[in-house]
Amino acid sequence: MIHPKFSIRALLNIIRTLDYQMSTFGQPVEAAITSKLQSSLAPSYLKIINESYMHNVSKGAETHFKVIVVTEKFNNLSLIKRHRKINDLLKDELQGGVHALSIVAKTPDQWTNDEIEPSPSCRGGFGK
């Protein structure tokens, strides 16, 4: 039975909030990457993919990422300058536990669809 002080809508909002918080609780690096790119670049499209599972690392690791960033802030910037901007924003993560970062950086005019080539399978590490 629901307490009379709480409406169904209020309870659903609480559950959604807790679900979101719990989903990012176990992935602090992914959450930090998302937060930094969102706040600094105001992307029209942002996707962070944890590709660590494709490598010889422990389950739940946050070591290999692909970021797809589409923003007007990339207008008039060369591809190398876009990559440098993202690398600079994520320098703490790259100096920490992030071992690899694949970057797709496009302007809204360049972003025609969300079809991105999958990353290749891992060919190195201790699991050769």
From TrEMBL:
Transmembrane segments: none annotated. Pfam families: BolA. One of its GO terms (cellular component) is iron-sulfur cluster assembly complex. Belongs to the BolA/IbaG family. This is BolA-like protein.
